[in-house]
Amino acid sequence: MTKTLFVFPVLLLSGALYFCTKEKKEYTPVTAITTERTPQENYQNYCSGCHGEKMDAFVDRGWKHGNTLNDLVKAITKGYEDEGMPAFEKTFSKTEIEELADYILNGIKNRAAYDFETVPKTGIFESEKLTVKLDTVATGLAVPWGMAFLPEGSLLVTERGGKLYQVKDRKNLEIKGVPEVLAKGQGGLLDIVLDPEFVKNRLIYFSYSKPKGNLATTAVMQAKLEGNRLTGQKVIFEALPYASTHHHYGSRLVFDSKGYLFISVGERGNEKENPQSLENSLGKIHRIKADGSIPADNPFKDKSGKPTSLYCYGNRNPQGMTLNPSTGELWETEHGPRGGDEINIIKPSANYGWPVTSYGINYNGTTITDKITAPGIEEPLLYWLPSIAPSGTAFVTGDRYKPWKGALLVGSLRFKYLNLCYLDGYKITGQEKLLKNIGRLRDVRMGPDGYIYVAVEDKKGSVFRLVPVN
């Protein structure tokens, strides 16, 4: 199509489709150029400055003036001057306004695909390739955060409020001896993992929000499980500095095949200082030995030349980590802001970009960065728009779920379902939404019995086992 495009002063180039700011501005065209632009190009040229590079992140919002096609056409045409939204009736033709509105409307429809209307009435869930039923393993756990399977057949479950339970035969036995936690906001007793030599040494590791006065940080404690008590408690990792915020602790724990312990730590809400600095522990993935000492070949050194626990950086809030059983590589999921949740493959010394690059925008609708890629930044294997709030993650192994074998499972906190990613090597070839509206799905694990287990923040605080139905 042919249109008249007005070139604005640089300060005013970031015109918006909704409202950008309450500050009133004047938008005066100075030069007219005849050119052809698609709706995508018009969004990038006129809207992305205020609403972010990705339209799908922009539409994930409440719509003050309505979100029908007519509402959008009116907003683009006339604007809302008092709210900082300019009128574009002299910038775009009528057809271009309608096409831009329709482009945005398609994004709204994509977002609506996550609004599951049905509430589960039974414990049976159908999917494209497999039907499963829920087998209740535990209830009464409030906010179950992490799970670890004991060799004798029982299950350890952390409860974010600060309690640790051993679950067997649907009974919850409280394990005494856990440390004091700051159970506030996103903090509390978080992930748990067994020592690779657990059968011999009975050692377990758990992450938690460790308080210090009014501050807290992500810490990891090692302890010995003896009956229903923990003994020999030892803090083997503390993320520094402590912070006054109560969110973005990260806290997933994974042992690799060499016996190294990987720890995810969020940036504690301070993206301007923490994730891109190598002088602190926040917004990073760390690697340590089981006793808390530092591997000599860790990629980053301190000023004296000694290795640090840092393994990679530029992470926002990684709450999912798991080893790919085919390659041994560490896969990670992390929360973006509004849009831009990610799946990454963790590499030593890599920079994962936050907040230099992001596919998301701020929760208030303002832009964080105009970059989705940059030199020296690892790009995500997958990003979600809208944000699903990814938490625990696991690869499907064994033959109980043959249609899903090799796929990656990711729990969604925001939309309360289990996300299934089909893989072909490093390429994600498709996704499916499982267990719709089951509840905030905090953790997912493959059990030693070959079944998938999920920890869910539902009304009962449950752990379920997924049993395939023939």
Structural descriptors:
five-stranded antiparallel β-sheet, 6 helices, mainly beta, 10% helix, four-stranded antiparallel β-sheet, Cytochrome Bc1 Complex, Chain D, domain 2, disordered N terminus, Neuraminidase, 27 strands
In short:
The chain has 6 helices and 27 strands. With 470 residues, the chain is mainly beta. The chain starts with a strand and ends with a strand.
Q: Separation of termini?
A: 54 Å
Helix count equals 6
Structural class designation: mainly beta
The parts where pLDDT drops under 50 for at least 5 residues are 1-33
Q: Mean of residue pLDDT?
A: 92
As for the CATH topology of the largest domain, it is: Neuraminidase
Radius of gyration: 24 Å
From the 3D coordinates, which CATH architecture of the largest domain would you assign?
6 Propeller
Number of domains: 2
CATH superfamily of the largest domain: TolB, C-terminal domain
Question: Helix fraction?
Answer: 10-25%
Shape: globular
Strand order of the biggest β-sheet: 3-4-27-26-25
Number of strands: 27
What's the CATH class label of the largest domain? Mainly Beta
Strand content: 35-45%
Largest sheet: 5 strands, antiparallel
Characterization of the model:
The protein is mostly beta strands and 470 residues long. The protein has six helices and 27 strands. Helix content is 10%, strand content 36%. A five-stranded antiparallel sheet has the order 3-4-27-26-25, with no helix packed on it. A four-stranded antiparallel sheet has the order 5-6-7-8, with no helix packed on it. A four-stranded antiparallel sheet has the order 9-10-11-12, with no helix packed on it. Helix 1 crosses helix 5. Mean pLDDT is 92; it is low at 1-33.
